[in-house]
Specification:
The protein is of the alpha+beta class. The chain is built from 4 helices and 6 strands; from the N terminus they run αβββαααβββ. Strands 1-2-3 form a 3-stranded antiparallel sheet. A hairpin with a 4-residue loop joins strand 5 and strand 6.
Amino acid sequence: MVKELHKRGYGNLRVIPYISPTGLTWRCEFIDQKKQNEPIAASKWIHNKGNYNLQVEIKLSPQELADLFIMENISFLEQCKGKNDEYQQWYSQMVESLTEKELPYEFDVSDEFFGADYWLTTENRKIVTLPNGN
């Protein structure tokens, strides 16, 4: 869905994935690059769209999810308008590098940030991130 939102002109939308404090679920928040809005709990938003069984694949396409997200969160997305080619390219390549069941995360259950230069994945791989500000 984020790749689709980027394509639609919301290039300053950023993603912060993490593991819940219990260590049992993956979560994801959306922020605008300038951090002018409160983050949106994207994983909770998707859960509320009818994907209550977390073991079942989401039935809506990324385009359908993007349509719904835009309708329900346009004021947040207004702050995400614009292009950030470097981040959009990095994000797209990062997503494409993941295996089907692999998820990235920026910090873990202990709220330990790994550092500004990488994320980990559920397959214990490191994903190099962009320098702050991009």
